[in-house]
From TrEMBL:
The keyword Chloroplast does not apply. Belongs to the AfsR/DnrI/RedD regulatory family. It comes from Streptomyces coelicoflavus. Residues 1-90 bind DNA. Gene3D superfamilies: Tetratricopeptide repeat domain, Winged helix-like DNA-binding domain superfamily/Winged helix DNA-binding domain. PROSITE patterns: OMPR_PHOB (PS51755). Keywords: DNA-binding, Transcription, Transcription regulation, Two-component regulatory system. GO terms for molecular function: DNA binding. The keyword Lipid metabolism does not apply. One of its GO terms (biological process) is phosphorelay signal transduction system. It comes from the Bacteria. This is AfsR/SARP family transcriptional regulator.
Amino acid sequence: MRYRILGVTQTEDHGTVASPGGPRLRALLAALALRPGDVVTPATLIDEVWAEDDPPQDAPAALQALVGRLRRTVGRQTVVSAPGGYRLAATRDDVDLYVFEHLVRQGTTALGHGDAATAARHLDEALDLWRGPALADLPGHAVGPEALRLEATRARIEAGLRLGDAPDAVPRLRELTATHPYDEPLHALLIGALRATGRDADALAAYESARRTLAEGLGTEPGPRLRALHAELL
């Protein structure tokens, strides 16, 4: 069985995708899948399952009841009682988050070695695993995966630029720089994509827009990479 936590929590068994149930059951499974093969204490599970609300008065009993319901959904042998807590009988290879991380490492390594085609293939496979916000049922753990998703997106666009996909990259980069206005690497990619399509005037305008955004929003000037691109355009 595989566990999908890059979005609303789901299981996948021989191609059949299913939800374990309501929000608390999904949060419980996500908390276990986040730590595949490791024992998770009841205190940790209670904190995460009831992160948005006060836990019930008899929280350990409520957790035990939830574990029983989850076992009926995914199989008793899958959620194992162990000294000190509960353990999901799975490995990192069974959880989409960790498959994603592995594929991103492969993609960025290939890009660093100059193999843009291999990088694009790995990064496409990685990004295709996402179905919505990371850890939608455990939002307190989403920051790291979302940051890596953005890193993978930047790397995939850079691979595309090396493969000659600049015209397709420009609209995507405009969207991303609007969503992440202080992300200098995205601004640099946009300027590079505009240059690659022969739009130097637009590239200069994109630099000026980035400079103004950084100055007004953060009180900073563009970093070395943006300044170097600007100098090349003059």
